[in-house]
Amino acid sequence: MSPRRNRQRVGAQPTEHVDGDRYGLERTEEWRGEEWVVRQVAGAGAAKHYRCPGCDQEIPPGVPHVVSWPRQGDVDDRRHWHRACWNARDRRSARLQRSRNAPRY
Fold first, then answer.
1. Which helix H or strand E contains 19, and what residues bound it?
2. Which of 31, 66, 94, 104 has a CA-to-CA distance to 52 between 20 and 30 Å?
């Protein structure tokens, strides 16, 4: 028995991909006293490597994540976050880079 074939319906039009739909819906959240625009990025829409400011780890291509920027900000102010890091941004402290011999107090 041969595998089943999916046949196009008669009169079906090919679907076009609209750029506005590719990036997902935006919402506004308040954080640190200013409004931030937050957009969910699907794994298929993530094509580059990004550095998450929450955990300072790399976000590889194909991983769903969050893009956020200040409402009054510029394109250069966009930051790509892991979803968990964005949700935990108030519980995290600043990541301090210390040398090996630095005291930890």
1. helix 19-22
2. 104
Is the C-alpha dihedral spanning 6, 12, 13, 17 positive or negative? negative
Tell me the pLDDT tens digit for each residue of 20-69. Answer: 445 567 889 888 888 989 999 988 888 889 999 888 889 999 999 999 99
Q: CA distances (Å), 8 to each of 3, 4, 14, 39, 95, in order?
A: 16, 13, 10, 34, 54
Q: Which two tokens stand for residue 21?
A: 């739909």
**Model's pTM, two decimal places?**
0.62
**How far, in Å, CA of 39 to CA of 69, rounded?**
9
pLDDT score, position 91: 80
Where does residue 62 fall: left (phi above 0), alpha (psi -120 to 50 degrees), or beta otherwise?
Answer: left
**Cα dihedral value 89, 94, 100, 103, nearest 10:** -120
